[in-house]
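Dear support,

We are seeing what looks like truncated structure output for some complexes. This example has two components. We would appreciate it if you could run it in full and send us the complete token output so we can diff it against ours.
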Amino acid sequence: MSRRLITTATTVLTALTLAACGTGSTTSAPSSSTAGASPSGSITLYSAQHEDLVKEWVDGFTADTGITVQVRQGKDASMGSQIVAEGAKSPADVFVTENSPAMTLVEKAGLLAPVEKATLEGVGTAYRPSSGAWTGIAARSTVLVYNPSKIAEADLPASLMDLQDPRYAGQWGAAAGGADFQAIVAGMLAAKGEKATADWLAGLKANAQVYQNNTATMKAVNAGEIPMGVIYHYYWYKDQAKTKEGSGNTKLHYFKGQDVGAFVSVSGGGVLKSSANPAAAQAFLAWITGPKGQQILSTSQSMEYAVGTGSASDPALPALDSLEAPTVDPSALNGAAVIELMTNAGIL
Amino acid sequence: MRTLQARPLAGPSVAAAALVVATVCVLPLLVIGAQATGQGWGATRAQLLRPRVAELLGNTLALVGVTVTACVVLGVTAAWLVERTTLPGASVWRVLLVAPLAVPAFVNAYAWVSLRPGMDGLGAAALVTTLSYLPFVFVPCSAALRGLDQSWEDTARSLGLGRWRTFWRVVLPQLRPALLGGALLVALHLLAEFGVLAMLRYPTFTTAILEQYEAAFDLSAGGVLALVLMGLCATFLGLEYLLRGRRRHTRLGSGVVRRPEPVPLGRWLPVVLAGLTGLVLLALGVPLASLTRWLGSGGAPLLPPELIRSLASTGALAVAAGAVTVVAAFPLAVLLERRRGVLATALERVTYVSSALPGVVIALALVTLAIRWLGPLYQSSVLLVVAYVILFVPRATVSIRAAFGAAPPSLVEAARALGSSPLRALRRVVLPLVLPGVLGGFALVFIATSTELTATLLLAPTGTTTLATAFWSASDALDYALAAPYALAMIVLSAPLTWFVLRRPEEVNT
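Here is the complete output from our reference environment:
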């Protein structure tokens, strides 16, 4: 009888599993890429960018080209390592990130196809790696958000490096576990070297409150739980454009002067070598870095900076070239080294 | 007679099936072990013996200590008040004290933190987890108390023991299996908890593992943390096994259980009522008030189209996971109840270890396996369902096993002795008694699946969102209004099943 039970069970199991399979939209769409003809079919996008921004990009691209895009949502680092783990079998055609290190990781694994020349030429040289293996698709600036009722403007640090000073103990917060913050540290590592960065991280461990993300950091500053926070600019501008609920009591401080705290992080986009539909994948990258895609950055209230030549960012933002950001080749940012330093500092 | 009762249900094929299930459950553990140690012993040692690990260990143990203690004290007290005293409206209180089961812990945390944004640390984490996990102790203890025979206590009283000493020496020992089972469940849930602790900024091994996986480019550091977590989990399981002891409290047949005489509360009544009201307000009132507030805030549509889609995929996944898990748990449950021995216990405990690991750890191990060897299954619902089975099989085992306990071999023997064929005995005697437990197991797995977060995030097919992942992405962005409809949907989806499980609390009794 037990055998019969098992047989029945197996039948039920199979039926149900099949039923479950039908619920996802996993149907492996036929992807065709015939050289010469205009790209068509469908592509899979691995996206670590903000979901709402990507949705606008995808909708606009599909409306223009008829190419459908399946989006898999994730986070920079885990998605980057996922692609590396998948290797040549990766279902992804295109990968877009919030920051450069995850893109560089995939590039170093040799999994990226060169970006089409015309696409590269449409993006400012400061916002793409010299290798041409991927391109910038947007940019964001490091800022210090502070609560003027908790700390006077005169007492703000002159450099991001100063936050390791004991006088700032318990005075600031950051989302140290996130890829955004790790990109900033990668910029610091490139500019100041390993020793200075390790010291600074030890200061972070001693002085800072760690929040789960930029929004939480900003809201904690806004609520007066902590006087200052290191975040990216667009969280603040987005909130300001809406209800100011999470930022009404705060101001932004830009470090400027090529300080490591003025670091501008480049969001990347690249086409996978293993793509089954490279023509459509390249077309997607061309579209989001082209005028229409870049315009969405300024009209969608994503408040991220446009990086396409001649594309304007949201008028509420200070001009990107007024931020006096340090010069860094995006592909020189070493995410793995940052993780190691942060692990040694006991932050991860 | 022995052979008669043992053979029909616990033959070698059942043992083989149980072995297969346990093997699938243990695979992820092997992958993690290989990942954690693959870099060489020196590097593993260095990662293991760093201050951060000590910090996380301290945090994790502190949380387990506080929450388990609080759950045990509150759970036993509440169960005793409801079952054995003259508390007015006992059946209403019973429902109210179990209802928090329908509110996923991370929804509860969301409710608290969105009302009091500064809330964090051990105190906050212990508060929210205690309120969420209290039913794990209350339910089995309340069921056990209800089933106790008053005559044992009468005997003790007549032999000269006072009321308190009777409670300590007679009632509590009989409660021990239920109590320990509940406490173990709370401890294991705490080890794997992610959502609550991430929201309340209380780092434990699980949140740190997720952070490592999210941030780190190599999986070894996360793997080392997962190893420590596995060790903790094994320790708790061993502890519970030792404390439970070999003693069994049995009575023959259901016989005539003398309904206990309710203890009069007298002048304590106002205090008791105030205490229970406070507890229910904290555990149920706060999440409901908070949800109502955010739903009414007008900050987001109440019925976004994505909600329907994620509701449908959540439902389908939960049904599939529930059914497959019940099937997988069956041989284990049969083996445990009918052939309790080293093998059965070992297989059961193995499934416990895997299920105590955070979903993300199991998921990453499965991703590794799938990429290497199971190409077509990668990013398919099948693999996701496998992950759910690994994570939730003990829930179904416990429930089905308890049901088999209600159909003791002696009943089968009696049926056989009266001339029934083994098949007929199974159909007429065992199945009717076991079916509620099977459905109970299904319901428990359904509820757990519909709120599972971290494995789903990693394994869900591209384009599939569930209620839990949609809720998480909104609340992670601190968009509380947007998250509210998903939170409500999760409650609505699991509430009827919770109700079903509760109507037969005996089956959840570990």
